[in-house]
Write a structure and sequence with these properties.
The chain is of the alpha+beta class. It contains 5 helices and 15 strands. It has one domain: Jelly Rolls, CATH 2.60.120. The structure holds 2-acetamido-2-deoxy-beta-D-glucopyranose. Its EC number is 2.4.1.207.
């Protein structure tokens, strides 16, 4: 478009028009304010907004953790945010970012859980997928960067074909829709977006061996660039079946070859736990883990 304008715009009116266009698109590109899409659900006093409400800080101390949730529920779409995790000694802390249908017995849930560690030891990222009340699908990777040194983007893409968990642009987990093979896939229940920071030193770090060191408190995690795009439920009745939703587009239905390579690289080099290969827990290989599925 810019080229077109360069060719045709040589007068002052066009210049002004161009300035307008640029200003408007910059305004639109501004990330949403936290309170636009989210609300605090646990311990107001432990969540601080800054940068005009476009970023927040979560605090964990001996009194409390804290949490927030989206105002709406969504059926398919993509949610992403930038998070900078607790630096230094974060052992025993868990920072979670997840989607949940809030329907106890039949809940659908897509989890990112960042498990803290002692100074210098790697954070683990645990993911889990619940479909119709059945979870127990944990996988863990250790990150290839220090997630407390800077902000990184964590996102969940959810469409009719699959659920993909991304760290920056790297897919770290794919849960395919294999309903045709009798494997449950979350697609009926809308889900809210949640995040919490809390203490879980009975299991989080080295299986609970490493305890939280309250001398290092308070613990802080930072969030910004909140972005949710999806079908709001209740809402338009046709949204979820509209094939022109970008998250249902061809390029989002499968990992492209470059993304598939990155995904293989993560699994070969950074995966530290996979329920699919845990024979003690799963003597029978769960059907969704079978090769080729
Ligand atoms: C913490 O560090 C230990 C030692 O490097 C490692 O085995 C473990 O996977 C790391 N993550 C967690 C959450 O325990």
């Amino acid at each position: 478009m810019t080229c077109l304008f360069k060719r045709f715009c040589n007068n002052i009116v066009c210049t002004l028009f161009l300035i307008c266009v640029v200003t408007v698109s910059v305004a639109n590109a501004k990330p949403a304010a936290f309170l636009q899409d989210f609300q605090i659900t646990w311990s107001d006093s432990h969540i601080t907004q800054f940068d005009g409400g476009r970023a927040i800080r979560l605090l964990l101390d001996q009194n409390s953790g804290c949490g927030f949730s989206s105002r709406n529920k969504y059926l398919f779409g993509r949610v992403s945010m930038k998070i900078k995790l607790i630096p230094g000694d974060s052992a025993g802390t868990v920072t979670a970012f997840y989607m949940n249908s809030d329907t106890d017995q039949i809940r659908d849930e897509l989890d990112f859980e960042f498990l803290g560690n002692r100074s210098g030891q790697p954070y683990s990222v645990q993911t889990n997928v619940y479909a119709y009340g059945k979870g127990d699908r944990e996988q863990r990777i250790n990150l290839w960067f220090d997630p407390a040194a800077d902000f990184h983007t964590y996102s969940i893409l959810w469409n009719h074909q699959h659920v993909v968990f991304y760290v920056d642009e790297v897919p770290i987990r794919v849960y395919k829709n294999n309903e045709a093979k009798g494997i449950p896939f979350p697609k009926m229940q809308p889900m809210g977006v949640y995040s919490t920071l809390w203490e879980a030193d009975d299991w989080a770090t080295r299986g609970g061996l490493e305890k939280i060191d309250w001398n290092k408190a308070p613990f802080y995690a930072y969030y910004k660039d909140f972005d949710i795009e999806g079908c709001i439920i209740p809402g338009s009745t046709t949204c979820t079946s509209n094939p022109s939703n970008w998250w249902e587009g061809v390029t989002y239905q499968h990992l492209d070859p470059a993304a598939a390579r990155l995904y293989r690289w993560v699994r070969m080099n950074h995966m530290v736990y996979d329920y699919c290969t845990d024979r003690r827990r799963n003597p029978v290989i769960p059907p969704e883990c079978m090769a080729g599925i």
